Request: fold
Amino acid sequence: MDRIERSEEQIAHLTRMVDDLSEIVTRQTREIERLSRRVGLLMEREAEREAEGGTLPLADQRPPHW
Reply:
């Protein structure tokens, strides 16, 4: 194999790798955006819950035997 063929093969591999990485970044960006929306909704829900009652959630309360 001469230098040109090796270079062409290497370029093909690198091009494929860049395409694969681009797909991964795109997928991760969508996942981050989805999770950010969910966290925002949870934060709003918790803020509303605190504004309404101001009581501790059951999971944060001490058990009666303490």
